[in-house]
Amino acid sequence: MSFAAIEKIADAVLYEGYILYPYRPSAIKNQQRWNFGTLYPLEFAERQKPVESFSFHTDVLVHGGADWTIDLCLRFLQIVPAGEDGGWDEGFARSRTMEGFRLGELLQGVERTIDLSTPAEEEREKVPAQFYTRPEKSMVAGLTMRAELVQGGLYRVGITVTNKSRVSAEDEALRRMAQPNAFTSAHLLLRVEGANFVSLLDPQQEHVEAVAGCRNAGVFPVLAGEEGVRTWMLCSPIILYDYPQVAPESMGNFFDGTEMDEMLALRVMTLTDEEKAEMRRGDPHARAILERTETVPNEQMLKVHGAVRGMHPLPTQLSVESELTSWDPFPERPPVDAVRIFGIDVRCGDRVRLWPQKTADIMDIAMKGKVAIVEAIEQDLEDNLQLAVVLEDDPGRDMGMLRQTGHRFFFSPDEVEPLGMEAP
């Protein structure tokens, strides 16, 4: 079974954070690898303080009959350490596909041990052969799956992946020694036959309670592939929305968080010759970025500058001019002459005592109990009234009457007391 339909977006997840701008191994941000979703060998992870991640778990909901099947593909990066002369720890994509798990056996529970020490046939040309000539080490994943009936035709499938690779005592002491046996950017691709997945982000009303009962740790499942099709799911260590897509204008993977192709491409173009030479020597993925950026045609750069999506023609009966001119954000309103406070009409020029209800601002504290003169009564677009006041003992009171900033303050009617009344 091929997962090619969703591997493009899955590759963006796989290499997220692999190498960051300025794409040089000597850059500080690239000397400590920080890829999402790293599962360290269990023996190493449990000896760390705090304990490192060594497994992930996902619950997905499947709606179907009694004879549906599910396929899955475990994907991750394997980091190959540099030689004794230093250099860059290069990463290679690994995957292992397991097909045809039937509902009947899932209800009983499935446990599998996946030996990754020997590459699959499709991996042999991608991962260096010398990396598999280490008999003292192993690379093993543990897979457990179980399905349970939630309600008529709706099943919850729980999947746990654990890194059970062996590590030596030397590897347990150093993270860099354990890294080659870690599953970096680990995630799952799922496909069902004869059934449909249920969105955990936007479930139908009858599935809301079942979704609330799902547990996801380390990854989160979202629908993938063509929008509207519910037979594919991507369980990603990065938070995504249903049916994520790579923008068609994208020139290729830049491995950097927000994937702003235009900005990153322009920055790569400004690197010095020495910096570009290090990119070429450091990593084949960085070299591909440089070669792609240096040869990108102008029309492609214009495409990544911006795109407008979702436009549709307006109905013919709609008059754009009438719709635009019929709404005035600042309609004329009759001025408010007075505000009734405690049974007294307060007007411009009246004296009031201030009782600010908010005390987070030092000005509110300083003006508590002060006598002020109402300079104006203002009304906002939501018809809320505000009294613009000037402090009676302000040496710059004249500037306040001229509506100068710093000498004129606003209070709601329930924060002032007509002078002559007792304080609340």
What does the largest sheet look like?
8 strands, antiparallel
Helical residue percent band: 10-25%
Structural class: alpha+beta
Order of helices and strands: HHHEEHEEEHHEHEEHHHHHEEEHEEHEE
Mean pLDDT: 84
In what range is the share of β-strand residues?
A: 25-35%
Q: Rg to the nearest angstrom?
A: 32 Å
Distance between the termini: 77 Å
Count of individual beta strands: 15
Number of helices: 14
The residue ranges in which pLDDT falls below 50 over 5 or more consecutive positions are none
The backbone outline, from C-alpha atoms, is elongated
SSE layout and pairings?
Layout: H1 4-14, H2 28-31, H3 42-45, E1 55-80, E2 90-102, H4 103-108, E3 110-115, E4 140-151, E5 154-163, H5 169-173, H6 175-178, E6 184-197, H7 208-212, E7 220-223, E8 232-236, H8 261-269, H9 273-282, H10 284-294, H11 298-304, H12 320-325, E9 338-341, E10 344-347, E11 351-354, H13 362-366, E12 371-379, E13 385-391, H14 397-401, E14 409-411, E15 416-418
Antiparallel strand pairs: 1-2, 1-5, 1-6, 3-4, 4-5, 6-8, 7-8, 9-10, 11-12, 11-15, 12-13, 13-14
Helix pairs in contact: 8-10, 9-10
